[in-house]
Amino acid sequence: MDGTALFYDEAGSGDAVLFIHEFAGNHRTWSAQLAALGQTHRCVAYAARGYPPSDVPESDGAYGQDISVADAIAVLDALNIERAHIVGHSMGAYTALHVGLRHPERCLSVAALGCGWGSHPDERETARGLCEDIAAMFREKPIAESAAAYARFPMRNTFEAKDPQGFATFEEILGGLSPEGAALTMLNVQRDRPTLWDMEADLKKFAPPLLVLVGDEDHPCLDGSLFLKRTVPTAALQIVPRAGHTITMEEPAIVNAALDGLFAAATDGTWMNHRKKTNT
């Protein structure tokens, strides 16, 4: 939107799906989704600003939650996509929710995967401090060392235990981040974005069909996912057993099936058919 070039991958044809990645990833962390869902949909996954091969602006003012939302819309506009299923993971899930709130006319549906880290009011100040520590780590240490440390945060342990080869690919993706881009994103998006609780009044009016999906070992995101289910009138919640935060790569078959179900129900208008209708 400000001349920043964003890289994207695309697969398939049909109704469009826009994938927005987490902090510890890029467009490649959606590879399993593009391979499967690209059989029936036009799937687009882009690397956020600050994430090579997208441009890496070097100022604080070039990053922020509002800018992330504008970038998502800019990708849709550049590809002449009028409406899409908006799928976000973690950091990207916050952006997906904001797209659903601000641009519901562009959304066929919204999915928020692994959403809620650092959002609970009781944890907010601690999370802000942790964001500053993580940003300093990416700036001060070799990227391989930062990647190895961040990849092994407790909420990702299940991935390494279940699939060492897949986890190695994830760590390799993380090791390809720009240290400065990661630090600026951590400070100006992760640290400073509004929390889910801050968004409560708006979320109560959320209109697009919403799937909330979280692993039961993704402890920092469980409260936020439950909050979304209780707050958003169109929300359905799926909790994946024995799964952690890196859900798109750790449990791709479950994620793909859940998204496919969301897309089908949103498209044929049956997403809310499970609710008993009341006379007014």
Order of helices and strands: EEHEHEHEHHHHHHEHEHH
Averaged pLDDT: 95
Shape summary: globular
The Cα radius of gyration reads 18 Å
Output the structural class.
alpha/beta
Explain what the structure shows.
By secondary structure, the protein is of the alpha/beta class. 45% of the residues lie in helices and 14% in strands. It is built from 12 helices and 7 strands. The chain has helices at residues 31-37, 65-78, 91-102, 124-140, 143-151, 157-162, 164-174, 179-190, 200-203, 219-231, 247-250, 252-268, and strands spanning 8-11, 16-20, 42-46, 84-89, 107-113, 210-215, 235-240. A 7-stranded mixed beta sheet has the order 1-3-2-4-5-6-7, with helices on both faces. Strand 6, helix 10 (219-231) and strand 7 (235-240) form a beta-alpha-beta unit. Helix 4 (124-140) runs antiparallel to helix 5 (143-151). It starts with 7 loop residues before the first strand and ends in a 12-residue tail after the last helix. The model has no long low-confidence stretch (mean pLDDT 95).
